[in-house]
Amino acid sequence: MATGIVEEFLALKAETDADLLTMQCGDFYEFFAEDAETVGEELDLKVSQKSSHGSSYPMAGVPIDDLTPYVRALVDRGYRVAVADQYETDDGHAREITRIVTPGTFLETTDAEAQYLATIVRGDGPSTDGRTGGRGDGKAADAGDGRGDRDDPDGPFGLAFVDVTTGRFRVTTAADAAELRAELYRHDPAEIVPGPAVREDDALLEGIREAVETTLSLHTSEAFAPGRARRTVRDQFGEGALEGVGLESDLPIRAAGAALAYVADTGAGVLASITRLRTDGDADRVALDATTQRNLELTETIRGTSDGSLFETVDHTVTSAGGRLLREWITRPHRDAAELRRRHDAVEALAGAALARDELRDVLEGAYDLERLAARATSGSAGPRQLLSVRDTLAVLPRLAEAVDGTPLADSPFATVLETLDREAASELRSELADALADDPPSSAGQGVIARGYDAEVDELIERHEAANEWLDGLADREKRRHDLSHVTVDRNKTDGYYIQVGKSAADGVPDAYREIKTLKNSKRFVTEELREREREILRIEEAREEREAELFGELRERVAARSGLLQSVGRTLAEIDVLCSLAEHAAANDWTRPTIAEPGTLDIEAGRHPVVERTTDFVPNDLRLDEDRGFLIVTGPNMSGKSTYMRQAALITLLAQIGSFVPARSARIGLVDGIYTRVGALDELAQGRSTFMVEMQELSNILHSATEESLVILDEVGRGTATYDGISIAWAATEYLHNRVRARTLFATHYHELTTLADHLPRVENVHVAVDDGGTDADADAGDVTFLWTVREGPTDRSYGVHVADIAGVPDPVVDRAGEVLDRLREEKAIEARGGEGGASGGSGGGTTQAVFDLSAGSFADEPDAGSGAPDTDASSDADRPVASDGRGDHDRTADRGSDHALDPDIEAVIAELTDVDVTETPPLELATRVQEWQQRVDDEK
Ligand code: ADP
Description:
Blueprint: H1 5-15, E1 20-25, E2 28-32, H2 33-43, E3 48-52, E4 55-63, H3 67-76, E5 81-89, E6 92-101, E7 117-122, E8 157-163, E9 168-174, H4 177-187, E10 191-194, H5 196-199, H6 202-211, E11 215-216, H7 226-237, H8 241-244, H9 250-266, E12 287-288, H10 290-295, H11 310-314, H12 320-331, H13 337-351, H14 354-364, H15 370-379, H16 384-394, H17 396-404, H18 414-419, H19 423-436, H20 456-483, E13 488-493, E14 497-503, H21 504-507, E15 515-519, E16 523-527, H22 529-562, H23 564-590, E17 596-598, E18 603-608, E19 622-626, E20 632-636, H24 643-657, E21 667-671, E22 675-679, H25 683-687, H26 692-706, E23 711-716, H27 724-742, E24 745-749, H28 758-761, E25 765-773, E26 787-794, H29 801-808, H30 813-829, H31 867-870, H32 875-880, H33 906-917, H34 925-942
Parallel strand pairs: 1-5, 7-10, 10-11, 12-22, 17-21, 20-24, 20-25, 22-23, 23-24
Antiparallel strand pairs: 1-2, 2-4, 3-4, 5-6, 7-8, 8-9, 13-14, 14-16, 15-16, 18-19, 18-21, 25-26
Helix pairs in contact: 4-6, 7-9, 12-23, 13-23, 14-17, 14-23, 15-16, 15-22, 15-23, 16-19, 20-22, 29-30, 33-34
The protein binds adenosine-5'-diphosphate.
Adenosine-5'-diphosphate binds next to helix 24.
């Protein structure tokens, strides 16, 4: 054993890889040396000095009972804290580390949200490991369109998520880094333990850190080894568990085994509450990548606030478990029509039964978080009050049934949700707890915890205890009477034990049997032999009660822990009832309607609204129709006219329908989607100093690779991060690709008016525009004349509002006028023609129509015969014909000799030749983007 207390501390610290150690020393937990300084700074704790063997060390301590909040504060700041407890030995006491509290294994959280610990394992390459729980819908299959052979050195990954506070355990796989980030963003883990191949990959770790704010912790590589992990999982869930849930591939099993091993090693003691291995893969879920979750502001806004998110808007849950479940539903929508109809049925029933619903919610308010209580019982950290909470929550079940009885809900589909509750088992456990527990127990196990009538031994002790106390209570009066004394009280304290206190004036008249033990200012304290005898008896009773009641409580807690499966399932059902009531509440209060699940490919919304924006604005509803023949809408309209809102509204209505909610619309027919993909103006990335164009292209690339015919794609401006012609070309090609190959339902808002001509060539493309009332004025009209109508109409806008914006922005009149002329001319020229059409889907080159090409030779469409007459010939005009609201980039690819006809630099001609040769539909977007950047660079170099 170490020689001094600080040495002992330092020796223990050397044993652990935790960031901080706290060591029990009697009634305190102490931090020493550097740890004391860290804690002192972080938590504003007083740091004193402790000398030990001639050296002096900083020391900071907290009383034993106060440790939890301090550890919580440290863990919240991302520290992993080892706790060493003191125990008795034959020759004094010793200490050992009993727990390592980490952000992902902290049990006593006060945060209502789920607290996930994640493990990540990486496979050796894209094809070495089958995907388990994957979408299984051929998403990655190569349909000869080049989408399946994505070069992906990153994946696949196996992932396990465990919430020790509720015992939830989920295993899944991610095909690539983007899917990995989506899973992480969705679960928002407090702590991540990366496997061996992941922890060495700085770029990947960087990507993970960008997706979530988390603590990265290391764990032994052995825990991730396939054989070891498989054993761990089997030990936990039983022999057949893996096969039972179809888990065969190594990756998720390695992640699962490592997660279990990590939890075990931290000593959290909750493994027994992790009873269910969930692998609900993504086959029945809607794919939502991290970007989309963020863009649609599902759980937080782009600005990072929860206020204004979809979750915050529709959340009327009254329990924390309900809030957690609603969040889960929103971030993992369903594709299973039967499950969704079940939820819609229940919401419909609840929405139409206001009184019964209010009653249900009132009753639910009395429910505590059963999943968390189960974990506390299992880990042995539940005290008497936690078990009382279990009792009281189980008592909610019959009251829920009563709230429904005799109401329209009784025969409604909602009743089936109630029926899933195992009320008999719950009632048994409830009465057991009611019989055993005293009504107002102390916070920790011991005397006063057990109710009367539960245990004969305790009953007898209580009776004797009460008799003894009664005797004491009457003692002062009896002594007064018997010895004719005044000012007599009987009390007890730590140092004196029980005593009789007599006022100074009467103290001389006490009988001889009184033995004085203390003189105070105005009184004296005495004891008698009889009192001492009673005192000894009371102490004996108290000790016996303490021991017996703690023993009984321990047994009771074990019996509760043994029912943790029941508690978890009841807890989940209560949470589900809470969520269904919440959805019904919102639907009823905001006039939402039940969506109809329609054939795939349909999205037919009548008078739809944006679920969040409608809360704060006088919202103008809009229709939206997408189907087999009309799968791609190009949305045009001026800035701020409501294009984004209209498109997000479509995505959110679809998403709401697919979590089981009603939707903000007069009517909605929705074909279920397998994924929602979005790409919107990347403000936040701009702020982070990342190239917007690169990010934009990565997002576009991900969509083009991942979306399927059953997906919904929202594109809010594509190509604005680069020069106008690049941008149009990319947007144009992406449209053709989405329309011809992917065939996803798409809404595409664009500034490039040129794109509206695509509707003439591609059969399923249609134009809509958001109307404004400009009083019939022209592009150069006064800005004040435009009134936003928020109304979406068929057809393209009748002009580009980019020039109008230029006008509003104060660009001089001659420039604006000239820009208008140029624009008209460009439109007449129609230099772009769409490629594809019905015949184009098979690929090949051309399909009879012309490739989308801009002739850069004169920086414009100058190759038409009569270049002199109306072609742009001033620099001013070239500045005004592109969207002014773009981010100011992209001026550099206009050659300086625009409008002139002298010979071009050979290097630039080479670029032009390459550009003309490139096959836009056959080139992967990212490669296209890279090449465009390279061309820009080369053109720039020549200027
Ligand atoms: P855009 O994408 O065309 O620039 P947004 O969709 O961002 O325009 O909308 C701009 C603002 O207009 C939004 O902040 C919103 O408050 C308001 N708005 C959008 N659509 C509607 C609508 N249908 N009814 C009322 N206000 C709307």
